[in-house]
Amino acid sequence: MSCGTGQNREEMKKRQVKLICPVPTDLGRNGCFPKSAFTINLDSQTCQCPAGKIAAEKIYHKYTNQLKVFAFSQDQCQNCLLLNQCTKSKKGGRTITVNQYEQHLQEARAFQQTEEFKNEYPQRCKIENKQAEMVHHGLRQSRYIGKAKVYLQALLIGAIVNFKRYWKLVKEQSQLKPDTCCEITNITTAPLPIAV
Predict the structure, then answer these.
(1) What is the tens place of the pLDDT at every residue in 42-88?
(2) How remote is the C-alpha of 120 from its chain's centroid?
(3) Where are the domains of the chain?
């Protein structure tokens, strides 16, 4: 599952965690306009299409009474110059679905356009690379039963990855050749053995 989904954003907002990740790419079906091409205003509950028309109908969820679908009528669509770019339906009425996470996704798309996001997002790849390195050492699956042992395993894996990084920096700063310094063996090839 992508980190940038609406459901995950809602959960992180409850935990007061700020996500620095993009919203999943919105691809239009059959080459048509994607949902992101439509201007959705949740406060006024309106949806404007790329041609500037406002959806004629709003459909609500039967049990929760929450807004579910914006529907453009056949009259609005059938004579539109952008019809072939908007829908392949022979009936000619485009619909736009919204869900309970729409507000979070809209906020995230707006945040993506800010300088703050553009400055911070490039740092994410560095974090993900380290996360992948720790997974390589066995972080994804616990080798033991019990929270204390699992926690200890995570700490030791983090420590060894940090030490590898520290050792690399030392070598770079001292400008030593690999064959003139001590070699670290059995670190990069196998999961970290833990004695408990």
Answers:
(1) 999 999 999 999 999 999 988 888 899 999 998 899 888 998 899 88
(2) 15
(3) 6-113, 123-180
